[in-house]
Specification:
Number of domains: 2
Low-confidence stretches: none
CATH superfamily of the largest domain: Ribonuclease H-like superfamily/Ribonuclease H
Strand order of the largest sheet: 1-2
CATH class of the largest domain: Alpha Beta
Structural class: mainly alpha
CATH topology of the largest domain: Nucleotidyltransferase, domain 5
Shape: globular
Distance between the termini: 27 Å
Length: 106
């Protein structure tokens, strides 16, 4: 669901070249068309592929959770607080330390 929501946001902002990362290798493989999906998530993956096609150039990349802590924190916060916001100019305060850590790891 996070991949679908991210692709939806990118599409609504009008981007046409993006790199989408996930710490779930199975999500990446399904979005790349490397794996077949026949479970309850099939409709979500089909929607991801449709959105990626409409966006234009989408590179799906796997990254380990340690390098993806900002996205993990954001997803956890949004789920726990039932929040649907986007921050395009400044990150929310609860996320700043995670973003700094992500940059320092590189």
């Amino acid at each position: 669901m996070a991949m679908r929501d991210g692709l939806h946001l990118v599409n609504s902002l009008g981007f046409n070249r993006i790199e989408a990362e996930s710490d779930s290798l199975s999500v990446i493989k399904c979005c790349q068309g490397q794996d077949q999906w026949w479970d309850a998530a099939a409709a979500v993956f089909a929607e991801c592929i449709d959105m990626a096609t409409s966006i234009g150039k989408v590179i799906f990349s796997h990254c380990f959770r340690e390098a993806n802590s900002g996205a993990h924190e954001l997803a956890k916060f949004s789920f726990c607080n039932k929040v649907e916001d986007n921050w395009t100019n400044e990150p929310p305060e609860f996320l700043v330390s995670q973003l700094v850590n992500d940059v320092l790891i590189i």
